[in-house]
Design brief:
two-stranded antiparallel ribbon, three-stranded antiparallel β-sheet, mainly alpha, 20 helices
Length: 509
C-alpha cells in the first residue's frame, strides 16, 4: 500500500512561507481546535502555545476553531472562556469565533452544510455508507466482545447492504448514521515528530461513524473538512491523536483533498509520570490567573519541561520562545511538569515586570485593587506601592504575598505594647530615641546603605543591649513582627514620618 503522505517529504520553512519541493509557496496556517466541553487547562495551553510559536516564527496564521459538535457535553461559558484565556496568556488567535476571519464561521456547529456536502461526496463514491444498526445491536456486539476478551468493534454489517435494501430502509424512515469504509491493508505516513508510522486500521477497528444520527459530524470527519476548507498547512496536536491520523489521511484521500503535514506533540504529564487530569482543580488556566500568576510564568514552565527548545533555561519571554522554538528538535519523550517550581518561575518573571516601568505600572494597579478588596476602601498612593515593589523585587513570588501577615505592617499600623519591648531590652526607649534621631537627621534622604550604617554606628554604643537585640526591638516596634525584612528596609518602606510616629507611639520617645 502506498504511503498516505501526499505532500513531498522534504520541507523547507522560511519566514512567511512554507516551501515544498514541488509546487508554489504556501502560507503557514495552523490551528488550535479544542472542544468547549471544559475550560482551558495546562495541556491545552501547551498545544495552543506550540501552534502560536510555529505560526509566529514563520509569519503565518494562528487559528482558533471550536469543535463543538458533541452537543451533549458542551459546558456553558467554556467557548468564551477558552478565547479569554488565550488572550490573557498573550497568544491571541489571528482568526477565531470572536475575531472572525476569511474562513469562518469558526464554530463547527455553524458549518454543518460543509460536512453534509462531504458526506454526500463519500456516499456517492462508495467510500461511505449508511448504517441502520440499532443501539441495542451495537451494545450486544460490545458485550459479546468483552465475553470473548476481544476489543469491541463494529462488524461492518451495513457495509454490505444493497442499494435496494438501503432505499427500503430510508423509505421506512429508519434512523441511521453514516460510516466511513476503511480500506484494508497497512498505510504509512510520516509524522514530523514521530517519523514514519504504520497502521493497519481496518484490522483492529470497525468502520468509524463520520455523521451521527442527529446530523452532526464526528471529530474524524469535521476536522478533515475544516482543515481543508480553512487552508491548514500543519497540524500540531497531542500525541493521543497519532493513532487516529491514518483514518484522517484516508478521509483526505477519499475526498480527493491534499492533507496538511502532521506533528504530534508528546504528552504533558505530572512530575511523577501520571496524566494531567481535569479533576485536578489546579490545572485550569483560570485557577492560575485568579491566584495572581503571570501568564509569562505559565508559558515559561510548560515549555521548560518539554522539547522544541535547547536547554532548560528559566525566565524566557514570549518573544524569546518564538525565536528559539524549533519543531524539528521536538522529542517523543513525555514532558514532566513540576508545578512545585511554579512560585520560583513566577518570582523570576515578577522581578522582570517590576524592573520594567510599563509593566510595573500594571502591577501597581493590581496591588491597589488587591488592597482595596482586603482593606475595603483603603487608598494607597501610587508612588508608595511602586516603592514597595522595587524594595521587595527578587523576594516576592506572588503579588498576593504583599497581603500576607508578614507584610501587613506596610498597610496597617500595628498595635504594639510597651511591655514586650521592655522585656527584650531595658534600654528600649533609648533604642527608639536613637532611631528617631537618625531618621530626623536624614532630612528625608534615605537609602539602605546609609540607614544600616547609622543604625549600627549608634546602637552598638549601647552598654546593656546587643546590636541584634536592638534590631528585634525596632522590628517589633515598626511591624509588630519578630522576623521579617531588615529594619533599614522597613524604615525605607514606611518613610521617615511614619517610622518616627510608630516609634514614638510604642516607646514614648
Amino acid at each position: 500500500m502506498r504511503p498516505l503522505l501526499l505532500r513531498p517529504l522534504r520541507l523547507w520553512v522560511t519566514p512567511g512561507r512554507r516551501w515544498c519541493s514541488a509546487g508554489p509557496q504556501i502560507e503557514v496556517r495552523v490551528r488550535f481546535a479544542p472542544s468547549p466541553t471544559g475550560f482551558l487547562h495546562l495541556g491545552g495551553l501547551r498545544t495552543a502555545l506550540y501552534n502560536y510559536l510555529f505560526a509566529k516564527k514563520y509569519e503565518g496564521t494562528f487559528i482558533l476553531r471550536l469543535e463543538d459538535t458533541d452537543r451533549n457535553r458542551l459546558v456553558p461559558g467554556a467557548a468564551e472562556g477558552i478565547e479569554d484565556m488565550l488572550e490573557w496568556a498573550g497568544i491571541p488567535p489571528d482568526e477565531s469565533p470572536r475575531r472572525g476571519g476569511p474562513y469562518g464561521p469558526y464554530e463547527q456547529s455553524k458549518r454543518l452544510n460543509l460536512y453534509h456536502d462531504a458526506v454526500q461526496t463519500l456516499l456517492e463514491s462508495g467510500a461511505a455508507y449508511r448504517c441502520f444498526c440499532t443501539p441495542q445491536r451495537l451494545e450486544l456486539l460490545k458485550k459479546e466482545a468483552f465475553r470473548s476478551r476481544q476489543t469491541p468493534r463494529y462488524d461492518n454489517r451495513c457495509r454490505h447492504l444493497t442499494t435496494n435494501q438501503v432505499q427500503e430502509k430510508l423509505t421506512q424512515n429508519l434512523p441511521f448514521v453514516v460510516r466511513f469504509q476503511l480500506p484494508s491493508g497497512t498505510h504509512d505516513f510520516q509524522d514530523l515528530v514521530y517519523g514514519w508510522t504504520r497502521h493497519d486500521v481496518a484490522s483492529v477497528e470497525g468502520d468509524p461513524v463520520i455523521l451521527k444520527g442527529d446530523g452532526f459530524p464526528t471529530y474524524h470527519l469535521a476536522n478533515v473538512v475544516d482543515d481543508s476548507k480553512m487552508g491548514v498547512t500543519h497540524v500540531l496536536r497531542g500525541e493521543e491523536w497519532l493513532i487516529s491520523t491514518t483514518k484522517h489521511l484516508l478521509l483526505f484521500r477519499a475526498l480527493g483533498w491534499q492533507p496538511p503535514l502532521y506533528a504530534h506533540l508528546p504528552l504533558l504529564l505530572n512530575k511523577d509520570g501520571s496524566k494531567l487530569s481535569k479533576r485536578q482543580g489546579d490545572i485550569f488556566i483560570q485557577h492560575y490567573a485568579q491566584n495572581g500568576y503571570l501568564a509569562d510564568t505559565l508559558l515559561d514552565i510548560i515549555t521548560n519541561c518539554g522539547s522544541g527548545f535547547s536547554g532548560n533555561q528559566m525566565g524566557r519571554t514570549l518573544p524569546q520562545l518564538v525565536q528559539q522554538y524549533n519543531l524539528g528538535s521536538t522529542s517523543t519523550h513525555s514532558a514532566l511538569l513540576d508545578l512545585d517550581k511554579l512560585p520560583e518561575f513566577n518570582r523570576i518573571h515578577l522581578t522582570r515586570w517590576i524592573d520594567n516601568a510599563d509593566t510595573r505600572a500594571q502591577l501597581v494597579t493590581q496591588v491597589r485593587t488587591l488592597l482595596q478588596q482586603k482593606y475595603k476602601d483603603m487608598m494607597c498612593d501610587t508612588e508608595y506601592i511602586e516603592k514597595i515593589l522595587l524594595l521587595r523585587r527578587g523576594h516576592l513570588c506572588m503579588l498576593t504575598d504583599l497581603l500576607s501577615p508578614d507584610y501587613s505592617y506596610l498597610w496597617v499600623r500595628p498595635s504594639v505594647q510597651r511591655d514586650p519591648l521592655q522585656r527584650l531590652s531595658s534600654e528600649a526607649s533609648e533604642i527608639g530615641s536613637l532611631a528617631v534621631r537618625i531618621l530626623q537627621d536624614s532630612h528625608n534622604v534615605l537609602n539602605l546603605e546609609m540607614l544600616n550604617r547609622e543604625l549600627r554606628s549608634h546602637l552598638q554604643q549601647l552598654r546593656a543591649t546587643k546590636y541584634s537585640t536592638s534590631m528585634k526591638v525596632l522590628r517589633l516596634t515598626l511591624s509588630g513582627l519578630e522576623t521579617g525584612p531588615s529594619v533599614a528596609e522597613m524604615m525605607l518602606s514606611l518613610g521617615p514620618q511614619e517610622s518616627i510616629a510608630r516609634l514614638r507611639n510604642a516607646l514614648s520617645c
